[in-house]
Design goal:
By secondary structure, the chain is an alpha/beta fold. Helix content is 33%, strand content 17%. The chain has a five-stranded parallel beta sheet. A four-stranded parallel beta sheet has the order 6-7-8-11, with helices on one face. Helix 3 links the parallel strand 4 and strand 5. It is globular.
Amino acid sequence: MAAWGERLAGVRGVLLDISGVLYDGGEGGGAPIAGSVEAVARLKRSRLKVRFCTNESQKSRGRLVALLRQLGYDISEGEVTAPAPAACRILRERGLRPHLLVHDGVRSEFAQVDTSNPNCVVIADAGESFSYQNMNKAFQVLMELDNPVLISLGRGRYYKETSALMLDVGAYMKALEYACGIEAEVVGKPSPEFFESALQQMGVEAHQAVMIGDDIVGDVGGAQRCGMRALQVRTGKFRFVHMGDP
């Protein structure tokens, strides 16, 4: 087995997942994972470029950064690649007006987006807002469109909070795909475009970067398909992956 120095030769940049790598969310904002605050600080003192790449869609990027700073991390909003701002760019570029099935905590990210007379649906980790009524309304909007467009902020199956595992947006995305007979466009990991955007913002090529995450599919697999190296941590959802998971 190759030594770590050989495996990481030529690495100039590190992409860090947030949930399950830096902290576990939960009551009171959650808790940092042991050693992660110090690890981020050490990376930032090194010659490596560091960027945070997350599928967080229950909090705005500003609110997420404020929470992480409160937990002790040296992080700024400009260092975070998140799906909601990326989705807003896509909506504006394509002239799409979304029906939003999102958490109230991230709704502010869409404040400058026209949501009148929707011609698409944007779904995110809406938490308690994933009611039958709200899911059915998203279904109805899609079924009334000649060319239905469903944009999903990530497609994770579940994530870990301090108290328990929590269903993620992917389960609800799949329900709408099945009911409407369509395929969602994923904005966030493991979308290649999302990783490429993070690399561009960091200023390194894929072969010069390593992704560190707890999700074998979204973090590790997605990064490797883009030509990056990837490491899976033994925190977050790592210990809960079942043999049936891809």
